[in-house]
């Protein structure tokens, strides 16, 4: 079976009747349109960016206004509370004054009770004289001497006061028991009986002293977190 050959359509030769200058003008118009389109896109982009910036600046201004209003409110509250703060500061100053003035307060009732508890049943106290050491001067060097004489002058302990004792006992053993009892009490340090004498009777007259430890301070005006 024979195949038919495709029909050949005759074509006319193309002839460009436009001059080269016209082609150049057409190319220039195309470039101008492209530049104009790119410029429009750039303008739209810049406008959108400027709108975003204006929105952010507006939000920042609103936030600044809110913060300024809050600052004004807090300032007004601070001014209202200024008298309260002045009162609290005044109370704090008075409290420090009381703490400093009463730091060396001693409960003498506790001291006398401690001495009575240490006194044996057969002994009797005739004289009990309590002397407190002067408070330390701020900034001055610490005084190494004891406020009360002790049995060992080369190994003294801190004493904030001194109790001079005088009385009678049934025997020297009772006087020794009193010394031991005073030494065991947390209120006293370095009990020292300086003299013991006997007369015509079996009674022993004694005299001496015992130092007061820092435990005699009441501490009732001290801070709750401090040592009493």
Protein described:
The longest helix has 82 residues, at 20-101. The chain has a 4-stranded antiparallel sheet with strand order 1-2-4-3, with helices on one face. The protein has helices at 20-101, 108-118, 172-184, and strands at 124-132, 161-169, 188-198, 204-212. By secondary structure, it is α+β, with helices and mostly antiparallel strands. Helix 2 (108-118) crosses helix 3. The model has no long low-confidence stretch (mean pLDDT 78).
**Residue share in helix:** 40-55%
Mean pLDDT: 78
Largest sheet: 4 strands, antiparallel
How would you classify the quaternary structure?
A: single chain
Query: What is the general shape?
Result: rod-shaped
